[in-house]
Amino acid sequence: MNGFEKRASLIKEKIKKTTLDMLRTSDPKRIRIADIAKRADVSQVTIYNYFGSKEALLQDVFKSFVDGAVRDFENYMAEKRTLKERIEYILFREKEAYRDFPPRLIKEMLIEDHELTRYIEELYKEKTIPLTVQMIQEGKDSGEISQDVSIESVLAMIRLYLSQYETILEMAEQSGDMDRFIKGMVHLFFYGVCGKS
């Protein structure tokens, strides 16, 4: 990468980081290119030259965020971890993701952008599901998951948790001790109400 390409890459990343920071506090519809440019200390023309439109910029920011989360998950899965540690990682990572992209914002972005929806669905099918199935199979092989429980059942349980994650996180925030609340949810996931500690 030559000096020009390096500078261009740094400017693009600065614009994307600024946009992500703004998405944490603002509705995407209210964010204007002029606001992003001002906060990133670049011209509006620079943003249009690199991204083409506000919609393309938002899409790029969200894709980068999701790609990074999947990469982190792949790296974490490559390390020797127990199933419980991996499930905790998924739930705690969701907590962090919730801060950057609340479920309301994700739904809004996916409803309005069919290309982004397709991208997320492909990523889910090609990367997330195979990694999760691998995790479950390794849990079965190590005896952490009962042989009586099917992979489909564990996937269904994970989906149930994640589909209600917005509600779970709201309850966790209201509890006053978010980490303790989520640890309790992990315990319930593995052992139920009366299971072993």
UniProtKB/TrEMBL annotation:
Residue stretches making up the HTH tetR-type domain: 9-69
GO molecular function ontology, one term from the record: DNA binding
Organism: Paenibacillus flagellatus
Protein name: TetR/AcrR family transcriptional regulator
Gene3D superfamilies with a match to the protein in the record: Homeodomain-like, Tetracycline Repressor, domain 2
DNA-binding interval(s): 32-51
Pfam families per record: TetR_N (PF00440)
Keywords assigned: DNA-binding
